[in-house]
Specification:
- By secondary structure, the chain is of the alpha/beta class.
- The chain folds into two domains: about 55 residues, 2-Layer Sandwich (Alpha-Beta Plaits); about 120 residues, Rossmann fold (3-Layer(aba) Sandwich), CATH 3.40.50.
- Helices cover about 40% and strands about 20% of the residues.
- A hairpin with a 2-residue loop joins strand 4 and strand 5.
- The longest helix has 18 residues.
- About 20% of the residues are buried.
């Protein structure tokens, strides 16, 4: 989305993720307890912390007999408030080797909520990550509707079931879109049956289409790039989503 939408940054905010061990050399007695206790080999024999390996667990600070180690904030990325040709956007970029987290998702969501309030927008779209981990839970907590995008592959069907279970756990309504539906008819039918069995509305069935790739090459959304069948399918899907979301 950052590449396609070309956001013009209007405001930035530093993001601090995992804590980082900091060793006070003047206080350290070089007992090596931190070296022995670190399961991530983030502290070498010279009692130096390697930031890329430190997971911020705090074990080293716990075992240090002279309290020479403290856990400090470290800059893990930057969150942005930006303007695009389609409207405002909140987004973030992590530094190399930093892990995505629910904390970062929550920061971006809060920025988006502030933007929506300031600009009198009544709808916030959240582009959620794949899987069911902490960032996914942070993405869907408290939302009005989850759109589960799946594909007709065994792994994607498995993920569909898991994400649906998470949405049920949080009592959040969900609908389903099948992307690249034409690559496997049998699996597409299996997804359709799953939706029927679990009272999930199928809001869209999108075929595999190289027009998507062409649109990306031209740094455009599919809606901008083409008015072909796929664009019409996406417009119809959005209509179905708004019917569920607004009850009309």
């Amino acid at each position: 989305m950052h590449l396609i939408l070309k956001p013009v940054v209007q405001d930035t905010q530093l993001f601090s993720g995992l804590k980082l061990a900091h060793i006070d050399e003047a206080q350290c007695t070089r007992c090596n307890q931190c070296v022995k206790s670190c399961h991530f080999q983030a502290i070498d024999d010279d009692i130096r912390v390697h930031a890329d390996s430190c997971e911020g667990c705090g074990v080293c600070a716990y075992v240090c007999p002279v309290h020479a180690i403290t856990m400090v904030d470290r800059e893990s990325g930057v969150a942005y408030r930006s303007q695009t040709r389609f409207g405002p956007m909140a987004h973030a970029v992590l530094h190399t080797a930093e892990e995505a987290s629910g904390k970062l998702v929550t920061m971006v969501r809060n920025m988006a909520t502030d933007l929506a309030g300031t600009l009198n927008k009544d709808l916030v779209l959240i582009d959620g990550p794949p899987g069911i981990g902490c960032p996914v839970i942070a993405s869907i907590t408290g939302v009005d509707l989850v759109v589960i995008v799946t594909e007709p592959t065994y792994s994607a069907i498995h993920d569909l079931e898991r994400v649906h279970a998470v949405a049920l756990h949080f009592h959040i309504p969900a609908v389903v879109c099948i992307n690249k539906a034409s690559i496997n008819d049998d699996n597409t039918r299996a997804i359709e049956q799953y939706c029927k069995d679990h009272a999930l509305r199928l809001v869209g069935t999108l075929p595999y289409d190289l027009t998507i790739t062409q649109a990306m090459i031209h740094e455009q959304s599919i809606i901008e790039f083409s008015d072909g069948p796929l664009t019409r399918d996406i417009r119809a899907m959005w209509q179905n989503i708004t019917e569920v979301l607004y009850g009309r």
